[in-house]
Amino acid sequence: MNSVTIRVPATSANLGPGFDSIGMALSKYVTLECQPAEQWSFSVAEKDQPYIPSDEKNLIYKTTLFTAYHYGIEELPPYHVSMVNDVPVARGLGSSSTAVVAGIELANALLHLELNKQDKLKIACKIEGHPDNVAPAILGGVVISSYTGEDLDYVRFTKGLKDLSFVTVIPSYHVETEKARLVLPDALNYKAAVLASGTANVLVAALAEQDWTVVGKMMKRDQWHQPYRRELIPDFPLVSKTFEENGSYGSYISGAGPTMIGLFPKLTPDQRKALIHQFPEHHVEVLTIDTKGLETAVHVDQ
Ligand code: HSE
């Protein structure tokens, strides 16, 4: 049996008004080293142990099994999976999507399923319910997707994104997506929905034209989720103001939060340092776009 290395990028969903349909892959990763073993097990770093089970409750394992069943296979060859996780759990950087994508890819590699990107994406959407995180985790770049529950279509952007810096402010508190979805209204009136959708449309057009000023403006104008989630992320107004005072194009709550991201022109090392110092109470990283998405290496053992 072969050993397998799988790397999945963190993702940031919504980009403001692209609720449940837009996401981007960032330069922060989960890496799995998978070796044939006597039984299934996971080694998880101490910091993650309260949140990531190391037994068969592990989301990667559950997804690997789900994928196997999906293709009519009932047993998995046992592996030991060693996880190096740089994607913080429950902070709005797609940690559960990294696990889902890694699990699908693990099944693909162990069972020789030969899945293409669309196959992987469809299984991931079935599990996650929406494509905004899983699509860029698989494909890299910024991905705009439409998922009906059956049909899945997407457009991927990469142009110009390497010229940007994403200042990522990660609070120490967790926000569970499920709870962050409960604060959203059950319905939006027609006029409000038309306005919110116009904002998302302009965001997408501005991404296509690499008009970062308009991208930033639309991020802030979101009416789908950010106005409701501010109560869960009390730091957002101040962080957003600090971003603005330091030359951002705009900022938004990443996914369901609490991470907040400021969109900047490419920052110099000095500018990065200065910005990081602006947020002494949070963990701050200056990230770049990941355009590769999911990467896998299979090592054929002798
Ligand atoms: N679009 C999702 C949300 C991202 O904002 O709830 C988290 O899964």
Task: Describe the overall structure.
There is one protein chain. With 302 residues, the chain is of the alpha+beta class. 35% of the residues lie in helices and 25% in strands. 43% of the residues are buried. Strands 1, 2, 3, 4, 5, 6 and 11 form a 7-stranded mixed sheet that branches. Strands 8-9-7-10 form a 4-stranded antiparallel sheet. It has 10 helices and 11 strands. It folds into 2 domains: 165 residues, 2-Layer Sandwich (Ribosomal Protein S5, domain 2); 127 residues, GHMP kinase, C-terminal domain (Alpha-Beta Plaits, 2-Layer Sandwich). The N and C termini lie close together (9 Å). Bound molecules: L-homoserine.
Entry summary:
The protein has 302 residues and is α+β, with helices and mostly antiparallel strands. The chain contains ten helices and eleven strands.
Helix percent reads 25-40%
Low-confidence stretches: none
Shape: globular
- The string of secondary-structure elements, in order, is EEEHEHHHEEEHHHHHEEHEE
Report the portion of residues in β strands: 15-25%
State the total count of DSSP E strands: 11
CATH architecture of the largest domain: 2-Layer Sandwich
Mean pLDDT: 95
What is the overall number of helices? 10
Structural class: alpha+beta
CATH class of the largest domain, named: Alpha Beta
Number of spatially distinct domains: 2
Largest sheet: 7 strands, mixed
Global Rg: 19 Å
Through-space gap between termini: 9 Å
CATH topology of the largest domain: Ribosomal Protein S5, domain 2
Unique bound compounds: L-homoserine
